[in-house]
Write a structure and sequence with these properties.
- The protein is an alpha/beta fold and 147 residues long.
- Helix content is 37%, strand content 17%.
- The chain has six helices and six strands.
- A four-stranded parallel sheet has the order 1-2-3-4, covered by helices on one side. A two-stranded parallel sheet has the order 5-6.
- Strand 3 (61-64), helix 4 (79-82) and strand 4 form a beta-alpha-beta unit.
- It is extended and about 50 Å long.
- 10% of the residues are buried.
């Protein structure tokens, strides 16, 4: 399985290990991870969905489940033209977690089993700076505002 990642993350990797990762994402998926394109978990969303569909192997499955790209729909979406023949597109939406699921997640975080990646922290009086950073989408990790 291969999950697409933000271009920002690819660029950050490129800064650290060289320009090799500035190749198109199709090359990255098809050549560097050749057996991983039968199942694609699309976490970025509409922004990279077309690329994910076109690098998926025949009879492969693309699961559209994320909105990390900040684009919430495809303009002029024509399934016959956008979805290659023999590729399956499905989706998953989990905006309504149960109280039990939320409680379990909080427990795992408190125990240290889940460690969120924190890019930076702001105090409440600097919330405007946090908002500006979020709009730029330049951080790698969560923006935390402490109250």
């Amino acid at each position: 399985m291969f999950a697409t990642i933000k271009l920002l993350i690819i660029n950050e990797i490129a800064k650290r290990i060289g320009n090799f990762f500035k190749l198109p994402i199709q090359f990255f998926i098809a050549v560097l991870i050749p057996n991983s394109r039968h199942k694609v978990l699309e976490l970025i969303g509409a922004l990279t969905l077309r690329e994910s569909l076109h690098v998926t192997a025949y009879h492969g499955i693309v699961c559209h489940t994320g909105l990390l790209g900040g684009v919430y729909g495809l303009k002029n979406f024509d399934p016959i033209k956008v979805i290659p023949s023999g590729i399956y597109l499905t989706g998953f939406y989990s905006n309504y977690p149960t109280q039990a699921a939320v409680t379990e997640m909080i427990t795992l975080i408190e125990r240290g089993n889940i460690r969120p990646i924190i890019a930076t922290q702001f105090t409440l009086d600097r919330i405007s700076d946090a908002h500006i950073m979020a709009e730029k989408r330049s951080q790698m990790g969560k923006i935390v505002v402490t109250v």
